């Protein structure tokens, strides 16, 4: 059984004066990344893929330091393109994000449409979704990770399938072509066996 585990980066330093793609991990984020690297399933990982955004690269670097797995950087796996608005403070960000999931064929405030983000992420990772000799770990972002999960699990795009906060992972069985479990904290023990939509 060859698996793909999709990991969303943990907590980041939010700075309205810095482009979102350049945000790095907080101290707590680094601590949780270390916990992620300690997960026993890295023993079966043969490839790590990361987006080129700082928070994902920094998470991948923690894994490299622990396991020697150098990440293959794929810029096309980045987070939802929100450059039209740039940084948005709460509660505005939450409102636009909700609109993004609620109306996947619309572009709220110029954001990348959810349907386009879903097509992009599944196209960028298409070669990793088929069966292979080893497990794959993708370090990425919550928004596109949710869109990919919805596609693989046969679910309509909906915010209720999104991670509750940064630093979660889900698993897809590449050999069986089946979604195994939804978002699960990176610093928690193994999720329950059997397919689940979202486990917390």
Task: Walk me through this protein's architecture.
The protein has six helices and six strands, in the order E-H-E-H-E-H-H-H-E-H-E-E. The two termini are 24 Å apart. Helix 2 links the parallel strand 2 and strand 3 (72-73). Strands 3-2-4-1-5-6 form a six-stranded mixed beta sheet. The radius of gyration is 16 Å and the shape is globular. The chain is of the alpha/beta class and 200 residues long. Helix 1 (27-37) crosses helix 2 and helix 4 (114-124) packs across helix 6 (142-153).
Question: Which tags fit this structure?
Answer:
single chain; 200 residues; alpha/beta
Estimate what percentage of residues fall within beta strands.
15-25%
Report the helical percentage: 25-40%
- From the structure provided, what is the oligomeric state, counting identical versus distinct chains? single chain
Distance from first to last alpha carbon: 24 Å
Poorly predicted sequence stretches spanning 5 or more consecutive residues? none
Number of strands: 6
Rg over CA atoms, rounded to whole Å, is: 16 Å
Helical stretch tally: 6
Which sequence of strands runs across the widest sheet? 3-2-4-1-5-6
* Class inferred from helices and paired strands: alpha/beta
